[in-house]
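User: Is it possible to get a 3D structure for a protein together with its bound compound? The compound here is nicotinamide-adenine-dinucleotide. I've pasted both below.
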Amino acid sequence: MTILVTGGAGFIGSNFVLDWLETVGEPLVNLDALTYAGNKQNLSTILKDERHIFVCGDIGDQKMVARLLLEHQPRAIINFAAESHVDRSIRNPESFIQTNIVGTFRLLEAAREYWSGLSLEARGTFRFLHVSTDEVYGSLEPNSPPFTETSRYEPNSPYSASKAGSDHLVRAYQHTYGLPTLTTNCSNNYGPYHFPEKLIPLMIVNALDGKPLPVYGDGLQRRDWLYVKDHCSAIRRVLEKGLVGEVYNIGGGNERANIDIVRAICTLLDQMIPRADGHSYVEYISYVQDRPGHDRRYSIDASKIERELGWRPDETFESGIRKTVEWYLANQDWVASVTSGEYRNWIEQHYS
Ligand code: NAD
Ligand code: DAU
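Assistant: Yes, that's possible. Here is the predicted structure of the complex:
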């Protein structure tokens, strides 16, 4: 028994791979193109583990994926691979269309061919789990109820539009060809190995460097935060118990304004590593130009996965953010290694 994970060197994918080997222990093939967001150092503890086979490659390379599937005969594919940063999608949308839409299409084609050739029994148990986002549902008004699985798709950024496109393809492959798919739409994750271009790790890394903490617009945009290990356990649960063709929303029930997130990080840093001058890290907060088309509010109704599959998150926001700040303080080498070259170019281009 083995599974194929794509994007397993990125933030959520690497957390999932580590969590899977620790909790399930089943061998896996990890296919990742190692873009700027993919980092083999995230997997340093398992690079010599025989249960983990790492393959550097593109999900859009259909022939290569077809060969991998025939060689390893996985019982499931979990698709994390994507371009994932909204700001980058606004500046350079092309790679988002290529990976998130075309790449998912090629991966689905390779999966369909492989699945068609399986025995009747193996066809029945095979799963293609597509990892998607709550951003496909667009932006909520302040008093609107949270997104459910039947909320209308209203993507607003090139990133969310490309993820919406991939979700539709996955749905179509189940409906048309019978490929046994599952789709998850999750809220904002945070935790270890989060690339410091995203809000939470950027704020921690900048604060430790004594740099400004760039808050877009008025900082009152709201997100629903989930500790990454809770996302991993939800995906394991959906893979194990989810019904074919179904969509499951995943969220932490931790809706917060961005400015409150940044302030919470500053408060933790004030306690854990006080500034030499005795001032608070809050003083580094700097309001900057807003993101174009910025979604004002996301909120997830996760009652379906809770009710039908019995999943619940373990971490509160308070416990999760503390663990996260502690992790970044204890892993400065990792931060140094991922914040070189390309990263610096991005920060310079985007925030200057
Ligand atoms: P990430 O950007 O940290 O990692 C993406 C990984 O995919 C990287 O390792 C990268 O090298 C790899 N990759 C990119 N293009 C590829 C290609 N063409 N072929 C193979 N590998 C490729 O992203 P993440 O934050 O870990 O997100 C993982 C998935 O979860 C994405 O599909 C994203 O849309 C979804 N998601 C993310 C969040 C979040 O808060 N980060 C929330 C909900 C859903
Ligand atoms: O909701 C799920 C999505 O969450 C995932 O699908 C995406 O892959 C993931 O990147 C994330 O998207 P966001 O755009 O919500 O995450 P980001 O960390 O980029 O921004 C979070 C909020 O913080 C958003 O309102 C923009 C704001 N922000 C972000 C950055 C990088 C700032 O105010 N300043 C910043 O410097």
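The pocket of nicotinamide-adenine-dinucleotide (ligand 1) is lined by residues 6-7, 9-13, 32-35, 37-38, 58-60, 80-84, 99, 103, 131, 133, 163, 186, 188-189, 195 (CB under 6 Å). Residues 94-116 form the longest helix (23 residues).
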